[in-house]
Write a structure and sequence with these properties.
2 copies of one chain form a homodimer. The first copy, chain A, is an alpha/beta fold and about 350 residues long. The first copy, chain A, contains 13 helices and 12 strands. Chain A folds into 3 domains: about 45 residues, 434 Repressor (Amino-terminal Domain) (Orthogonal Bundle), CATH 1.10.260; about 130 residues, Rossmann fold (3-Layer(aba) Sandwich), CATH 3.40.50.2300; about 130 residues, Response regulator (Rossmann fold, 3-Layer(aba) Sandwich). The relative contact order of chain A is 0.12. At the A-B interface, helix 4, helix 5, strand 2, helix 6 and helix 12 of A face helix 4, helix 5, strand 2, helix 6 and helix 12 of B. The structure holds a DNA duplex (16 and 16 nucleotides).
Chain lengths: ~350, ~350
Amino acid sequence: MTKKTTIYDIAKRLNITAATVSRALNNNAKISVATRKLVLQTAKEMNYEQNKLALALKSGKSYNVGVIVPRIDSNFFASVIRGIEEELYPKGYHVIICQTHDQQNLEIENINSLLNAQVDGVLMSISNSEIENNDSFNKLIKKHVPLIFFDRKKSISGVSSVTIDDFKGAYEATKHLIDQGYKRIAHLSNDRSLQIFKNRYLGYKQAIIDNGLEFDESLVIETMSKVAEGRKTTKIFLDMDRRPDAIFSSSDFTALGAIEEIKAHGLKIPEDISVVGFSNEPFTKFMELSITSVDQSPIEMGRIAAQVFLEEVNNSKKVKSEKHIVLTPQLIVRKSSQRLTQLV
Amino acid sequence: MTKKTTIYDIAKRLNITAATVSRALNNNAKISVATRKLVLQTAKEMNYEQNKLALALKSGKSYNVGVIVPRIDSNFFASVIRGIEEELYPKGYHVIICQTHDQQNLEIENINSLLNAQVDGVLMSISNSEIENNDSFNKLIKKHVPLIFFDRKKSISGVSSVTIDDFKGAYEATKHLIDQGYKRIAHLSNDRSLQIFKNRYLGYKQAIIDNGLEFDESLVIETMSKVAEGRKTTKIFLDMDRRPDAIFSSSDFTALGAIEEIKAHGLKIPEDISVVGFSNEPFTKFMELSITSVDQSPIEMGRIAAQVFLEEVNNSKKVKSEKHIVLTPQLIVRKSSQRLTQLV
DNA sequence: CTGTTAGCGCATTCAT
DNA sequence: ATGAATGCGCTAACAG
């Protein structure tokens, strides 16, 4: 009972050959209806289950895909992964999840060990783009293992990506603040060597300029996506001679830190200062003072990334081409920025 | 360049045999220092990488373990998984994550497809225990695939588990409320066919009884772990003739719903009514009115579950034995229940 | 110390 | 329509 039954076992039982069993099971080649039926039936009787490992060795496909993210315990990435799984499971694929914790070496290690595990593809959100990590990517490309970036991408020839229009998200968030009457809008930025943060910065800047406000570079400070960092940086803003009357943060976590700091200073939100975050993490909705944020439709992003992977893995014959899908973000207005609500 | 190099390639280059190469690479048997060095060096030159699939087929080990959880986009489960990965990655294992979304059929399907993928073990938190799903579990046991439960377990002979002492966590949470002077403490319960929720209920009940308060079954209502459900159920409490002055919730999400509903009724927290949750989800700390909750040390739980798996997978020879590890939860007191703070 | 042989489980030529 | 033979890449048993 402990030994698994193979196609040989069922072949022996039926006095036929393993090849025939294989054919019957895969209802591939021409085979007599009678034997197919017989094989299928006894296969069920003997609790036969295909050994995917053997199949993988034979076919070179493991039906595993690797997903690399900075971290898993953030709602955004967890939701993207959920989208990927929803799309891939029905097709028989499994998902192997790796975290980089924003460490460059782990990113490389993860790629290597996924390659080692013979994954059929890699979907990833890069951690940082300062150090050149192209060797790992080239390895994937050389081996024809489809690589798809989502959210945090890098521009590499032949590599597809699914992102959101961060520029637009930031532009609209900033425009929303301007529409609410705020004049001096600061920006809590983040590592701008990453395109997403760079684009959020640019969208913010453009909205400021397009609407006739003064763009002041000193109102842009780069920090890390942590609550405590958000507090620290916000303190700098609040201590300015001409302090800002609104903050557009590129992260919900720093937005939260900003709110804490503002309250600690005895200022009111959104009357004195307004705050807008980015990502629509669940807590932004849960807070008593709910936080306006930009939704990135992470589940959809995951599903689409998975679809792109499926296309690439199936179109092996055709000429390679890269595909860049850009989703439209959605501003979710909540209490932290709704100055005019009562007036309407 | 696209073809991967195998041990045969490097054997040919060196005019030795593949077996020798294999030995050198695994620095196993006795082998001359010279050839080993030579093999290692040319292996590096030729960019050799072991094909784990072949190894898996040969050894019967895939170095993949399956992790099954109700959902991934909850901080608790994401953190447990993180703990599992931290422990398993250094040992060369990969983690395949499956979600059940609390659906029984998905639980069964996931086990089957993990089995199909030849995983070396399954770590899981069961979704519900109403329907008997023992066939799937028996399959695992028959095939000697280690199965370890974490958090949400089922009592099955030979299966180890890592849980927290939910009874104690609930007892202390309730005791804390009693110590703060609350007299009429309600309990927002959850599906008690799951041991964790049953034990939280029992801990609550025992604390009430031990401290000379009246245990009133009508103050216990079972609901689902969602914010909206928490609100609905809390409304029932608030509409009672003798309404409770405190609520111990078996979930942070229902606790949050309770808080919303209480505020909507114009009551003050914790002065009028106090609220305590369970799980220490991040938002409980983030809220302006931070929520007292019970921490379950999820990362530690994941690490230990992984360790138990490693023990089982390595001690194949010895007699099987089950191991039950129970972690001690920790009450984190925050604003939602600290009535006496100002007095101290 | 190293070569030979064989097999893990399967799918796929080439025969028949 | 089916059988025989082969190889995917690796390790282990048995010789030498």
